[in-house]
Every structure is written in structure tokens, then in C-alpha cells.
Automatic annotation (TrEMBL):
One of its GO terms (molecular function) is oxidoreductase activity. It comes from Prauserella oleivorans. Its EC number is 1.-.-.-. Gene3D superfamilies: NAD(P)-binding Rossmann-like Domain. It holds the Pfam family adh_short. Belongs to the short-chain dehydrogenases/reductases (SDR) family. It comes from the Bacteria. Keywords: Oxidoreductase. This is SDR family oxidoreductase. InterPro entries: NAD(P)-bd_dom_sf (IPR036291), SDR_fam (IPR002347).
Length: 243
């Protein structure tokens, strides 16, 4: 079989970087996209892949990225994250705008731009990293949970719109994963970020990447619709067992 190409957005850190590694090890030709090229390049070199600058919030950046990808079998919509943890009464519109632009419109732009190539590949696969926040709500989380709900709805709509096309659709739904996610959410406040993971074993980026690679390496007729994975000590977005 000829080499399959996988595009991974937000591949400069965390789940995206681990996914690029896992897919390269599974035999994919990987194309890594993110804004921090200085992190992407060495990883792409190590994996024999390609690093391309990508800002999913910028239509021109997405267009020039996609132009440089001649074919695509797998798209991993991973770029995203959270900003802030304010109650609705204190909601920060800038935080909301960032979360909606990156998680929701970013996924829309990348998916829309690569769909023709995914379908033309004869065995395309859209894998979107949403979150348990896409399926429940928690106090202070409305900006993030609403964006992740929207991202999940957008992603799941593809399953019925493309029924009959050679396209698989998989939603990856992680609970708590220890990455820079909380550091970014709390604007670089390392102490506050560390508290999120205190007293329990969170998932690692590699745990999630392994599941993504598993979904991407099933035979073409097998569609894993939705995969939820959480640390054992996490029940949902607001209940944990901490030592
Ligand atoms: P992370 O370590 O903060 O990584 C976020 C990645 O997204 C970075 O590579 C960043 O790259 C990229 N990104 C951000 N804005 C971007 C933009 N405008 N254009 C292109 N890339 C952009 O966080 P992570 O935990 O790996 O998060 C990855 C995904 O998993 C997110 O969608 C997140 O919502 C989801 N998730 C995370 C958790 C968790 O607990 N960590 C749980 C469930 C779901 P650059 O800054 O270089 O552009």
C-alpha cells in the first residue's frame, strides 16, 4: 500500500505533537501545522515529516497551508484550548472569541479546506479532538464548553453529510490530560495550572495519541465514531478523586 498522509493541527506541543509521533511511527507521512515553527521544525525533521506554519484562525494561513499539501488521507483537528475560567456573569468576550475562533472556526476552516483531498484519497478520515467539555458543562467553563459543544456538533454533522463517501469520522473525547493546556488557560500562571493535576494521575498526551493512532489504523470499513477516555480518578468535568 502507498504511504498515507496525515495532517495534524496544533502539532507543536501536547496532544498534537504526541499524535504526530504516533502516526509517523504507524507509517504515515506526517504534515505538522502550528504557529510556533521553531517547535514544529525539529519534530518534523525527527519524524521525516513536513512542518508548515499554520494559524487556524486566519483564512489566508489555512489556504496557503492546504496549497502545500498535495494529498491528505487523515486530518487530525487538534489545535485548540481554553482561556480563563470565569462564571457567565463575569464572562470575558476576548476569551470567548479566542476559544470560538480556534476550536470551532479553526476546525471548520481546516475541514472545509481539506475535505476535497480527503474524499479524493479514496479512504479519508477526519479525527477531531473535542473534549468531555463538548458533552457536559461545569461552573466557570461556559466559554470552553460551548465552543467544544459546537466543535463536536460540527464534527458529528460530517458523519451524516458524507455517509456514502469514502470518509471516516472519529471524535476523540478526552478528560484531563497533562499538557500546557492549563498553563495557557490561566495565562502562564504555573502554580494555578499545577493545581489542576494535583493528587491524581492525569492522562498523558501519549495516552491520547495512542488512541488516535489506533482509530487511524483500522481497516477502511471500520469507523470508530466516538472515543471517550479519562483518567481513572476522573468521573466528569467537575468530580475527581484526589489523594
Ligand atoms: P496545548 O499543549 O496547549 O497545545 C495546543 C496546541 O494548539 C499547540 O500546539 C498550539 O500551537 C496549537 N494552537 C493554538 N492556537 C492555534 C492556532 N490559532 N493555529 C494553529 N495551532 C494553534 O494543549 P493540548 O492539551 O495538547 O490541547 C490539544 C487539544 O486537545 C485542544 O483542542 C484541547 O481543547 C483538547 N483537549 C485538551 C485536554 C487537556 O486536558 N489537555 C482535554 C480535552 C481536550 P501554537 O501555539 O504553536 O500555534
Amino acid at each position: 500500500m502507498s504511504t498515507r498522509t496525515a495532517v495534524i493541527t496544533g502539532a507543536s506541543a501536547g496532544i498534537g505533537a504526541a499524535t504526530a509521533k504516533a502516526l509517523a511511527h504507524a507509517g504515515f507521512q506526517v504534515v505538522l501545522g502550528a504557529r510556533r515553527l521553531e517547535l514544529l521544525k525539529p519534530l518534523a525533521d525527527e519524524l521525516g515529516g513536513t512542518a508548515l506554519p499554520l494559524d487556524v484562525t486566519d483564512a489566508d494561513s489555512v489556504a496557503s497551508f492546504v496549497e502545500q499539501v498535495p494529498e491528505c488521507h487523515v486530518l487530525v483537528n487538534n489545535a485548540g484550548g481554553a482561556r480563563g475560567l470565569e462564571r457567565v456573569e463575569d464572562a470575558d468576550e476576548e476569551h470567548w472569541r479566542w476559544m470560538w475562533e480556534t476550536n470551532v472556526l479553526g476546525t471548520l476552516r481546516m475541514t472545509k479546506a481539506l475535505l476535497p483531498k480527503l474524499v479524493a484519497s479514496g479512504d479519508g478520515h477526519v479525527i477531531t479532538v473535542t473534549s468531555i467539555a463538548g458533552h457536559e458543562v461545569y461552573d466557570g467553563g461556559s466559554g470552553y464548553t460551548s465552543a467544544k459543544h459546537a466543535q463536536s456538533a460540527l464534527h458529528r454533522t460530517l458523519r451524516s453529510e458524507h455517509l456514502g463517501d469514502p470518509l471516516r469520522i472519529t471524535e476523540i473525547v478526552p478528560g484531563m490530560v497533562e499538557t500546557d493546556f492549563s498553563l495557557n488557560r490561566f495565562d502562564g500562571d504555573a502554580e494555578r495550572a499545577a493545581k489542576v493535576y494535583q493528587g491524581l494521575d492525569p492522562l498523558t498526551a501519549e495516552d491520547v495519541a495512542e488512541v488516535i493512532a489506533f482509530a487511524a489504523t483500522r481497516p477502511p470499513h471500520v469507523n470508530l465514531d466516538q472515543i471517550v477516555l479519562k483518567p481513572r480518578a476522573q468521573l466528569n468535568g467537575s468530580r475527581f478523586h484526589r489523594q
